[in-house]
Structures are given as structure tokens and as C-alpha cells.
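Progress report, Aim 2. The chain analyzed during this reporting quarter is listed below.
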Amino acid sequence: MQQVLLTLGDSWPQGGELKEDLGQVPYGNLLRDQLHFDKFYNYGTAGASNEDTIMQLQDYIDNNWNETDNVTAIIHLTNPARTRHFPKDWTHWRELDAYSDDRNHWPTDAKALLQQLVLHFFDDNHTVFRSSATVCALQHWCKKYNIDDYYFSGWVKYPKWLSGVNTDKIWASGNETAGDWFGASSHNGEHLTDVETNPYIKPNFAHPNLLGHQLIADKLSAWIYPEDYKTS
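Predicted C-alpha cells for the chain:
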């Protein structure tokens, strides 16, 4: 029986801003080595939404899953405002305030379009529903295919879930993030802010550096195998 590790999510599991030529690798690679997995699949994709992780998991099931494998999946929860429904080439979606000062140069029709998109996609209750439905789907498929699934958030807290979500599988039920581990809790929704001198981020813009990825790997190791590891 092979021990298999999956990492799913956005640019954090992908290893955004890490320098491959310097041997810098994301937390999935570090976990593979620390916990001695036989195989490792990293499905992290820059800009991915939580809903994208459903398709990442389906890709693994369709193409690599083997019923004799012992599989562990680490799912990184990103900004819940992201959605598969936005055009991938539309660059304006990151700024949710249609009337912010830095968007005053936009034509009136662009402001009106953005306002309609914000109203349609970003009702708070709708965001809770989408996040809960996504995690419920992931948990259902993981149970069906005998995959041990673990979830943690990079920087946005998830204080509310609909009934049916197994929050025991989510680090601190979504009320503590990796940013909190770094001492970097400020964010603008889309990424961490005020992290220019943070030892777990610098010299990167907003993604963890190698030290940050090592801290994530250590936390996750202690969570998956608490009898063998101690969290700080």
C-alpha cells in the first residue's frame, strides 16, 4: 500500500514567489519528506478559487487514484470571494469597491458593471453558502474514495459554516489562519498586507517564503500525526 499526499488550492500550495532555482519548495514537498509519503501530487494553481479545488480533486480521482493507496489530501482555503464564474482574463475583479479612488479613471459603464458583479456574487450569506457547499462536496468525495482530508485557510478567516460541514477537519474551524501563525493577520481580502518585513514572507510580496512554508508543514505534520509532532 502506497502512502500518497495531495495538495489542492491556489498559489500557496503551488509555491507562488518561491525560487525554484534556489531549491525553494512549497509545504507539500516538505510534508512529503517529513512524513515519508511514497507519492506526491501538487494541484495548486495560481488564482484558483475554493471551487476550483473540486475540479483538482476530480482530476486526481479520474487520473491517479488507486483504491489500494492510503491517500491524504491537504486543501488550502483561499479568499472565499474568488469564484470559478469570473472570466479568467478579467483583471478588475480584485477590487470589489466599484467607486474606490483608484478606479475613478474607469468609464462609467465599467463601474456599473463591477457594481452589478459585486452585488450578484458577494452577498455575505451567498459566500457562506458557496464555501460550505464546496467543502461539503470535497468532504463527500474524500469519504467516498477513502481519502483523509484536512483543510486550512491561508489568510481569510471562516467564522461561519452551514450545518453539514465537518469543521473538525478544518484547522480551528476556520477561525485561525496561516497568516495568524506568521503574525500577519492584516489582509485586503485577496492577499496579506503589511508584510514587507515579516520573516515568513519577505522578500516576497504576499506569499510565504521557504521559512513560512516550513512553518506550515510543521503545523500540518503535528495536526496529521499529533503523537509524533508538537506544535509551537
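DSSP finds seven helices and four strands in the chain. The beta strands are 3-8, 39-42, 70-77, 147-153. These observations will guide the mutagenesis work planned for the next reporting period.
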